[in-house]
Amino acid sequence: MSAGTLSAVAAVGTFIVIAASAVAALVQLRHMRAGNQLEALLMLERDFQRSELQSALRHVQERLPARLEEAGYRRELERPGFIDSASHPELLVCNWFNEIGTLLKHRLVAEAPFMDLFARLIVHCWARVASAVAIMRRTRGEAQYHDFEYLAIQAARWVDRHPRGTFPRGLTRESLPDRWLDADRRSGSGQDRHGLAR
Description:
This protein is mainly α. It has a domain at 38-164 and 188-198. The protein has helices at residues 3-49, 51-62, 64-67, 71-78, 90-105, 111-140, 146-161, 181-187. The chain is elongated and about 95 Å long.
């Protein structure tokens, strides 16, 4: 075998080794990214379970609409500067969703699994707090909670694309008996269009 042939074979061998190394590095980067995405999602889930946030979500669900009817409560939201979240727990909800909106906007958290878990809640919470945000924007400008707004828009689109969730196609869903459906409909309980309790 001539020196030229040996040189060509060595060059091809070197190329194969470099290409295999590059592929291995890309696979490793993909696994690392998936691990980071999973850790970020689990961190958000842990944050969601915190009692302080759960209490704030209950406030948004049960008390905020009535509190916004009070002029003094609205003045506290409109006034520039610090707003105490002890008096305004809705701010904890707004801050949490705003942070998540920032993470999703910059693709630091994978959108699909997050929306699969939280899209309906996001839409519901935004509908509840939008009036409070509008009041804060009187003095703070349009940037106030704009990433929560972005998140809510994305979540509404997600819900519209997946009105029945993301149950895998091809699997037969189980028919669940609803023993109290007729009684509850007669009593006036209901849900909004996103399947959330009113």
